[in-house]
Amino acid sequence: MDEMAPVLVVVMNNLRDMEIARREGWYRIPVKRAPSRLGAEYLAFYQTKVFGPEGLAINYYAPVKAYRLARREELLPEEPDHPRAKEWYYKIEIGPLEKLPRPIPSRRLRRITFIPTTLGRLLRAQEINDLWIGGEAEESLWELFRENGLPAERRFLIQGEEEKEIDFAFFCRKGKLAVMCDEEPLLSGLVRERAAAQDYELAALGWVPLHLDPELVMKSPAEALGKVLEALEKLGGCTPEEEPWNYDDTGQF
Amino acid sequence: MRLGFPVKILGHPGLRPYDSRRWHNSPHLTVSLAYLRDIILYLERKRIRFYRLASELAPYIAHPDFPAFHHQIEECAHELEEVGKMARERGIRFSFHPSYINLTSLHQEVVEHSLQQIIALTRILEAMNLGLEAVVVIHAGGAYGDKASALSRLCRVLENLPHEVRLRLSLENDDLLFSVNDLLWVHARTGVPITFDHLHFLNHSDGMEEQEALKLCLETWPESIIPKVHFSSPRTAMKLSDDGGKRRAYPPQPSEHADFVNPFEFISFCRMALMTCRRDFDIMLEAKARDLALLELRGNLRKFAPELEVE
């Protein structure tokens, strides 16, 4: 087994598409909405709540055989009047679905889109947040949070004027904390301005931004953790995990 | 002048240059093209407009034992065209540099296999609808104790290549056998342009001055095509290896590529080229740190030679 084989986790949000994957061996992604990392040796399927007991978890994966380009009307000829009938899609041809040794659940109701990961991580993950691959500091922070029982949500999507992804989200009694590990160096004044603008926007959306210097995380993890704990305390501590946040299960490709 | 790097991406974990699965796991050109699409987006983010494609992009495409893989280019015409369009829209130049090519071999089957490889790579570039600046760069092959005969064999093989294949072919000087001088002889007979390699030249100059060699190589390229040049610095770092549990240190060979590019060596080379040559050219950096080396060099050029118009 190639531990590093690239895997793309995709969303399965209706029963028909699951049947297509199982019986016909393909899955589709609109070209316009494809993630920046599309290529993979395996697809894994995050099933939404419509799948009942199997929902809100990844249960199956399949080897990728080919990526084809096709219009939606060719893929789903029974829907010729669909508004996106003429649009181009990646038709990802796959082999037989295999069941994971154990389901990978999402601890919290949240929006999931695409997660690029590896086969090793997929087979070992305890929950969705274990799948993301971050930089060195982000990975260290995630380990710290896990070891200290802090219920962070990784790569959380926030809908503002533009969709934003924050490294770690915490949901607290008195607000929401956005922890960002600034691994991309701030090269210029323009980039710094952009980061500041993002903080204002996050604040307007009810988030408290907390930036952590990657060097601090790597050299003094206890100090970095202390900053997060202090921010969480100011926000009244974390809420129970079962409370839904920003959940949208209606999107259909 | 565009700076490029070869194949592997080190600056973004998870980006693969081709579908590397073995034959029994059914690798496929379209999977490689999905990886390439991701790489193009990465190149765009980093403003890199020159990239060497993996020769294994179409897995087993010319492997004599696996004919089932031989029709991938026709089967993936649409997908190839779309990836080519993505590259063209972003002004990205592609090239190939296949290893294990030997057109001077004394064994006909070796030459035949090399030709099949070159033809397949040319067809990929054509299927992508890329201009003639997308080239396949090769080394000449072996000398087998008689360099003059080897060069004559090479000329015969090149003259018999299909026109469309010859149009995209370029020969590179190597560090041991075939010098710029030798390849100029081949160019005079076949018209195949020469990709000048700086480090190989330093190791095997054959009595030429670098500025003269570079100028003559650039002149072998058609006017309508921007020539390409290979550049890398010689490794100077100590090499460590484990010999039966004992760590031993070795000095580097002067022909070995360094991890990064010596910015001062690069700046001197560019200034020399500006003074000597009238033609613009693109530079493929053959540093071991790949894209990281390119980004580092770019930063150094901003600092030490902002006058050089390098992308």
Give a written overview of the molecule.
The complex is a heterodimer of chains A (253) and B (311). With 253 residues, chain A is of the alpha+beta class. Chain A has two domains: 6-130, Archaeosine Trna-guanine Transglycosylase, Chain: A, domain 4 (Roll); 136-234, Endonuclease, Chain A, CATH 3.40.960. Chain A contains seven helices and eleven strands. In chain A, strands 1, 2, 3, 4, 5, 6 and 7 form a seven-stranded mixed β-sheet that branches. In chain A, strands 8-9-10-11 form a four-stranded mixed β-sheet. In chain A, helix 5 links the parallel strand 10 and strand 11 (207-212). Chain A is globular, with a radius of gyration of 19 Å. Chain B contains eleven helices and ten strands. Chain B has one domain (3-229): Divalent-metal-dependent TIM barrel enzymes (TIM Barrel, Alpha-Beta Barrel), CATH 3.20.20.150. In chain B, helix 1 runs parallel beside helix 3 (77-89) and helix 5 packs parallel to helix 7 (180-190). Helix content of chain B is 41%, strand content 13%. Chain B starts with a strand and ends in a 7-residue tail after the last helix. Chain B is α/β, with parallel strands linked by helices. Chain B has an eight-stranded parallel β-barrel, surrounded by four helices. Chain B has a two-stranded antiparallel ribbon with strand order 8-9. The chains are: A alpha+beta (253), B alpha/beta (311). Chain A binds chain B through residues 6, 36-41, 63-69, 90, 116, 118, 133, and chain B through 13-16, 19, 21, 25-26, 28, 30-38, 41-42, 78-79, 82.
